[in-house]
Amino acid sequence: MAASTTRSPAAIDRHAVRLITRVSIAMAAVATLSLLYLLRHASIYCFPASHQPALTISLAPFPRSSCDAASRRVVPPDHRLAKLRASPRWRRRAASLAMSAFPPLRGLGILAAPSRVLCLAAGAGHAVDAFRASGTRDAIGVDLVEFPPLVRRADPHHLPFSDGAFDLVFSDDPSATSGALFPSHLAREAERTVRRGGGIALAFDQEIETVAVATLFKRLCVLDVKDVTLDGSQASGRS
Known about the structure:
Elements: H1 9-40, E1 57-58, H2 66-71, E2 74-75, H3 77-85, H4 88-107, E3 117-119, H5 126-133, E4 139-143, E5 151-153, E6 166-171, H6 175-178, H7 183-193, E7 194-204, H8 210-214, E8 225-230, E9 233-238
Parallel strand pairs: 3-4, 3-6, 4-5, 6-7
Antiparallel strand pairs: 1-2, 7-9, 8-9
Helix pairs in contact: 4-5
Domain Methyltransferase type: 120-200
Organism: Zea mays
Pfam family, one: Methyltransf_11
């Protein structure tokens, strides 16, 4: 008598699982190889890029396709900085800092030519550039987004600097304090990185009470509060 060739339901399920697993592995391998190929080979329909995108930043709008990214014009950071320096807004901002913000800091004795300055929420680096132009050459800027050559990326709540590394911690952006995720952490980091005898100068909107800003700081006391105009917007400065 011939033996029955009918499989049990359990055997059929095991066979189906093995088949599905093999198909999934094969598809994953094909997808991985395809992705690696696309990453290593430029599209034949795009012009190949002749620059190093990691070292340059484009002034063009954000690309919508790989073709846009491959063919758009880019400029080195130094050329971009020169273009920004030539803009009227950059010149106005630098002039307002030099005339309104820096003289009071020099009068308080917390800013001099040899001072080491850290600019928080530095943006494109206009404050850093203004410090250097006024004679304080050792000025650096940090922000959440890197903007070379003047600004490096850093979290203001966890600054990558040693204790007492700076003579002055400065910010001309009111949102550096009001827009911080944890203002008390930012204040603590600013106090940590400034040396004993140094100072912290922050700009904040006039709607914010000075007392509210002062309570963020535990080690330093308020020396001076002034109303200054920065690029057409009035703000208060606390030192």
